[in-house]
Design a protein that fits this description.
heterodimer, A: D-Maltodextrin-Binding Protein, domain 2, D-Maltodextrin-Binding Protein, domain 2, six-stranded mixed sheet, five-stranded mixed sheet, 9 helices, 33% helix, B: 2 domains, 60% helix, 12% strand
Chain lengths: 301, 292
């Protein structure tokens, strides 16, 4: 057999093997995934205590559409977790179970703590003139915050800025008779009107609570907007294409999220409130239905 | 002949690769289905363990003033265990969901596609498993799904009405989701999915390894065949051909030594030997006639 024949015998099968084995070469891409291999995204209503009770204020269709948008933007499988409880969201952030999250202001302040290291990307929410207040019944004998000693108080769960951190910060040193929680301000107001509690946390940007209640105290800190935050691991990666896709699709985002494609997170406004969150987080924490002494080292800003 | 052989070998290899491509495709899908079944059985075992062993200890804590402890929930345990399993590189491509039409945690809320699977289980209670392909923004996925049926009365403590549910659960997930479940009702589905790319990748690896082995085998067989043919047939035939040409001029000086062989070459040499002798006699007779 000649060399040509031998060459044919070796080369032809090689070419055919290569053709058979190397079809459908995968397209290279750089997905933005978390350490689990997927992108775990927490979604909270950016407006605290609004109380839609349908999962971060999103309908099923809005959740599905947001999930698809995030999948396209990240190039990664998305595990979307809408939550109504700031307490559960806080636990997720503390355990770094979320790679990205749409957060209200209190949880944004919590996520920015140095040990968690989340990075804010875009502001969320529409509420601009939000102030934390404490309401009591119109006929209540309570006139000052100090009168809350021994009183039954209703708060939003841990993680809420206007409904938990700020009221507790202002109640420092008091011994509350009982603390009750609700997921939204409307439920707290109903508890107050039913007489189940003597005072509740309130947000001044909520619709007028009516003549049956009056303000015991209004906190002077302006509550900033929430934020879309990214975990420290992903913030070190190239997340700009992800952000650009979200910015380009801002109009398709659910309106209730209040995603602002051109906005910058209100870090400066958040700084003093972050200090309050850090401070209150170091105190003893109230439990549902239990008396509570608001106790801990108070750092005044 | 060498070219013919190489073409025959190459076409054989191509045919084998095409057949194997189909075969490995089935095999890869079968392997993924087997693994998916194993995952789902394992997760059912985890759910069972949680229901029987963990829930009785942890659930009473959820009735207290503290935060809600999801460790009491079978679905939470199954998903958490799967997350640990998925941390291993071999299983990274797999994803596991316990999607429900009306879950307590909206993370488990079925999307449109999952809803259609769950509805099909509800409409056909005898169906125990379905599998197929689904398209997502990330490409095509192979999935295997099984129904989740409420088989224990204890599940209804947290899923019948909000007033039966622990207060801590209501504070964690609200009072709108995950209620109204009924005993023996299909409420969701276990769904394992794998990117088709993983399936193709698995098939490609098997195919490439087998094709390489076949190619090496074919080349070695070809080279050995070539050497044997050359030694046993081609060279003796070339020698016989050369001697036959010489015998046509001077038959007496030529001897076909291959005639001692007992094979076809030997027979051919014997024939040429007889022809040479006949030619020699004929030539001698011709010479004798020409003498005066």
């Amino acid at each position: 057999m000649g060399w040509f024949g031998l060459l044919g015998m070796v080369v032809l099968p090689m070419v055919m093997t290569a053709v058979a084995g190397c079809s459908a070469v995968p397209v290279a891409r750089t997905p933005l995934c978390g350490p689990s291999g997927s992108l775990r995204v927490g979604v909270m209503d950016p407006v605290e205590g609004r109380g839609s009770s349908r999962g971060a204020g999103l309908s099923s269709e809005q959740r599905e559409s947001l999930g698809k948008l995030l999948t396209v933007a990240s190039g990664c499988q998305v595990e979307l977790e809408p939550l109504d409880s700031p307490e559960r969201a806080r636990m997720k952030l503390a355990a770094r179970k979320w790679d990205a999250a749409f957060l209200p202001p209190g949880l944004t302040a919590f996520a920015l703590r140095a040990e968690l290291g989340y990075t804010p990307l875009r502001p969320l929410g529409l509420r601009q003139s939000s102030l934390s207040a404490v309401l009591v019944g119109e006929g209540s004998r309570l006139r000052h915050l100090s009168d809350l000693n021994g009183a039954k108080v209703g708060l939003l769960p841990r993680g809420s800025l206007g409904g938990f951190y700020l009221p507790l910060y202002n109640m420092h040193g008091l011994s509350l008779g009982r603390v009750s929680f609700a997921l939204d301000y409307a439920s707290l107001l109903a508890m107050l009107k039913r007489g189940e509690v003597d005072a509740i946390a309130w947000d001044e940007s909520m619709p007028d609570p009516g003549p049956a209640v009056r303000r015991l105290q209004v906190d002077g800190h302006a509550i900033p907007l929430g934020s879309l935050v990214l975990s420290s691991a992903l913030a070190k990666a190239d997340y700009l294409p992800f952000l650009k896709t979200l910015d380009d699709a801002a109009a398709q985002m659910p309106e209730s999220i209040g995603y602002s494609a051109s906005g910058l997170p209100q870090q400066q406004k958040l700084q003093p409130l972050k200090a309050i969150v850090d401070n209150v987080e170091s105190w003893s924490m109230p439990l549902e239905g239990q008396p509570h002494r608001v106790y801990g080292r108070k750092i005044t800003s | 002949m060498a070219i013919t052989l190489s073409v025959v070998f190459s076409l054989s290899l191509l045919l084998a690769v095409l057949v194997l491509d189909q075969f490995f495709g089935w095999q890869a899908k079968d392997l993924i289905n087997q693994r998916s079944d194993f995952f789902m059985d394992s997760m059912l075992a985890v759910r069972e363990y949680t229901t029987k062993n963990v829930n009785p200890i942890v659930a009473p804590l959820n009735n207290g003033p503290g935060i809600f402890r999801p460790e009491a929930v079978p679905s939470y345990s199954a998903n958490t265990v799967f997350d640990y399993l998925r941390a291993k590189p071999d299983y990274k491509q797999y994803s596991y969901r316990e999607a429900a039409l009306n879950p307590t945690n909206l993370k488990d809320k079925a999307d449109t596609f999952e809803t259609s699977i769950i509805e099909s289980f509800r409409e056909s209670p005898s169906t125990t498993s379905v599998s197929g392909e689904k398209m997502t923004p990330l490409g095509s996925f192979h999935y295997v799904a099984r129904p989740i049926r409420i088989g224990k009365e204890s599940c209804l403590a947290c899923h019948s009405t909000p007033d039966r549910a622990p207060r801590s659960q209501l504070l964690a997930y609200g009072d709108s989701n995950g209620f109204g479940w009924k005993l023996n009702e299909v409420v969701g589905a276990q769904i394992v999915s794998v990117p088709q790319e993983a399936l193709v990748q698995s098939k490609r690896q098997s195919l490439l390894a087998t094709a390489m082995m076949l190619m090496v085998t074919f080349v070695v067989v070809g080279l050995v065949t070539n050497a044997v043919l050359d030694q046993l047939i081609l060279r003796p035939m070339r020698r016989i051909s050369s001697k036959a040409e010489e015998a046509s001029v001077t038959p007496a000086s030529v001897s076909f030594e291959e005639k001692v062989r007992s094979d076809e070459i030997g027979l051919l040499a014997q024939s040429f030997e007889r022809m040479k002798q006949s030619l020699a006699i004929s030539m001698q007779m011709l010479k004798d006639r020409q003498k005066p």
